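To whoever is on call:

I kicked off a structure prediction for a single chain this morning and the downstream step that reads the tokens threw a length-mismatch warning. I double-checked the sequence; it's 255 residues and nothing unusual in it as far as I can see. Pasting both halves so you can look.
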Amino acid sequence: MDRREFVALTAAGLASHILKPFSSENISPAFAKSKFKAIAFDAFPIFDPRPVFRLAEELFPGQGAALSDEWRTRQFEYTWIRAAAHQYKDFWHVTQDGLIYSANKLHIELPDDRRDALMNAYLKLPVWPDVLPALSALKKAGLRLLFLSNLTQRMLNANIKNTNLDGVFEHVLSTDEVKTYKPDPRGYQLGMDVLRLQPEEILFVAFAGWDAAGAKLFGYPTFWVNRLKLPPEELGVTPDAAGDGLNQLVQFLGL
């Protein structure tokens, strides 16, 4: 997975900040425990998308990696373009459009059955290995858990069922409800509206650097699960903490 995966909306005119890796020595457990009442997760700190890209290589040997790179870039660029242009399509259709474009650009023949196989792989994603212990610790601490994702409700619900996470999340929120995409503030606002909490009471957990920046700009305290070990985005804000897995989120919260 390369750096093009999560392209920033814009960096022009914004000051650079350096994000220090998370260290439990830098955070007071009492601060973390008392501050947050709920944790809002993007989908991908929980669900592992890598099987989709492995399938691409299986279906298109020698071309799958290039197809995946182009597809991921288009997938997110299309959400931002549609949000900015007020020409909404849901994430399932945007994902499919990005796949078709990418195959056309790379001159890869994409039969309907292979297109459908790649798309349906997004309905049966596994969880990352550190997810179940972390969610158990968060639940035991009495924190309210929710999804706040650009994925459609169908995509979220299918993956929750597939990974036996039914009942773990109090709310499963898709930005499809407001016909836009993060980092549009209307997307982040969904969490506050449903939980009836102030932004400082909700910790947002992001997978992408741009999502961590967007949530922070909105006003959420933010933890960046930087599984890809990428540099921070040049968007003038930094997450409150970052780590390469959910075990470090648990440490951050002092649990």
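Update from on-call: the warning came from a stale cache, not from the record. Cleared it. Sanity check on the structure: Residues 1-32 have pLDDT under 50 and may be disordered.
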